[in-house]
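[agent] plan:
  1. take the single chain provided in the ticket
  2. run structure prediction with default settings
  3. attach structure tokens to the ticket
  4. add a short note for the reviewer (M.T.)
[agent] executing step 1
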Amino acid sequence: MLFNSFEFLIFLPIVFFIYWFVLGRKLHLQNIFLLIASYVFYGWWDWRFLSLIAMSTVVDYFVGIKIASLINDKKRKYWLFVSVVFNLGLLAFFKYFNFFIDSWVDLLHNVGYEVKSVWTLKIVLPVGISFYTFQTMSYTIDIYRNKLQPTKDFIAFAAFVSFFPQLVAGPIERATNLVPQFLSERKFSAKNISYGFKLILWGFFMKLVVADRAGVYVDTVYGNIENHEGLTFIMATIFFAFQIYGDFAGYSLIAIGTAKWFGFDLMTNFRRPYFSKSVSEFWNRWHISLSTWFRDYVYIPLGGNRVSRSRWLLNLFITFVVSGLWHGANWTFVIWGALNGIYLIAEVLIKRKTKFRLLALAYTFVVINFSWIFFRSSSVSEAFSIIKAILTSPGRLFIGSGDDIAASIYTVMAIFLLILVELKREYWSERWSLEKSNLKLVKFSFYALLVFTILYLGVFGESQFIYFQF
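[agent] step 2 finished; step 3 output follows
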């Protein structure tokens, strides 16, 4: 079920009403109901994949209890190994099986052996599998590290794993934050409902007005690269930068706002990343739940920065390559991750920071956009063709004709409005604060205008969120 679907607009109010006004403060019944609602939400795509969530839930529930009951470290490691292998095994089979087979066949072909890829399978990627497997793995890892005690409440744990607002595209919540909320009484709060609604509304603006409108131009250009030239690719890549930001940050805001309606606090996932003055700062602001997951469960276990300088830089590089592979079974994502790793290594080696803020902002935006070319391209060869066109044949900027021109203008307007709002939040968050204003008319006018903008400029049609494919 998509957030931007008619079904969700029916589903959410019904679940909200039953949760608060039928079940009241009966915690166990609320958790059972959230579990059922979450399975309905996920099963709306393909009910067959509910078995994967159920298996992951059962395995990590019992493994968590088993690890906590043991003193012998070897036995604890064995059960942690069971959890990690099971979850990564699910991920490897459904997401990477054909990728590894095809890559192996290509390698043999390059060294002179002709082998047909007879072992590839027609595998459907389960929505959100990269997210909920990481979430459940962090649960057992934190228990092993003695940062968390396992819950004996199976319903609460199952509801944590499948919590529908953040199930399919995050934020990837830590059990240390979310599980205790399922075990504690939630109180109805008009303030939470109001704040959640504002987050949902802004999330829909970012998704429908910014991301989906920019996506029309991006898909036109990247879907037919033979007919476009350098300037057009530059424009399409910049549009994609805002498309993926609006799409993913918009989803996160809708998820966080929806969770607020049910009395839950999810972690912030984005903090205006395009105002970063370095790539390292960008990754402290972009997809925070994933970047901190890789920091805590990959980078630090590798040794982090507590090792020799060369090993430290290698740890950075490995972490970003793995992060790239997490995003998709394609060498384009591996290169995208490697590029970001190289950027960070360069920043460590150079050290020198410019005093000119605008120059630092521009540098970061340019190098991040360069890496987005690989992220958006369907193949490595396509990415290099685009880069070659940008460097050698700028040509004319494609803006279409007729309605296409109007659509491009609307896209620029939407991006400009997003930048203005984020500029205010970044540098003048306390000045002219809408939330602190006592003028109800001003607040009402702003949100009424936002609703009108979404309805007038939004692209409707149940387009999927980009990160659903990961």
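[agent] step 4 note for reviewer: The mean pLDDT is 90.
[agent] ticket updated
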